[in-house]
Design goal:
It contains one helix and six strands; from the N terminus they run E-E-E-E-E-E-H. By secondary structure, the protein is mainly beta. The protein has one domain. It has a six-stranded antiparallel beta barrel.
């Protein structure tokens, strides 16, 4: 799977999702995803720490399973580096919208 966006320059180039873990935050389905290209942390107030673990939640509806593509998501990162358990979405910073694709070609072309 790949994560990319035609709306946010940060995610214009597709990132391969290396692993994902389903979880719930405040009753919402979310996924913790490890990506092959880290996000430049300095752009989001994280100093020199780049972030390769992102959190995604459905942009328009909850994601129960990632089995229909593309799927539009909010991309979030922890507000505090080192945190990996969250009770609230307020503990995460929304850094963009993107889509999850099942193949690199569609992710490059931003097929919706």
């Amino acid at each position: 799977m790949y994560l990319s966006s035609y709306e946010y320059e940060e995610f214009e180039k597709p990132r391969k999702i290396v692993s994902l873990t389903k979880l719930k935050i405040e009753g919402r389905v979310a996924f913790r995803v490890l990506v092959d290209i880290p996000v430049f942390g300095q752009d989001y107030g994280l100093g020199g720490v780049d972030v390769d673990t992102l959190y995604i939640v459905g942009r328009f509806e909850d994601i129960e399973e990632l089995n229909s593509f593309p799927f539009e998501v909010h991309v979030l990162i922890p507000k505090m580096i080192g945190s990996d358990t969250f009770n609230s979405l307020d503990q995460l910073q929304n850094i963009g919208w993107a889509s999850v694709y099942d193949n690199e070609k569609d992710a490059i072309e931003h097929i919706i």
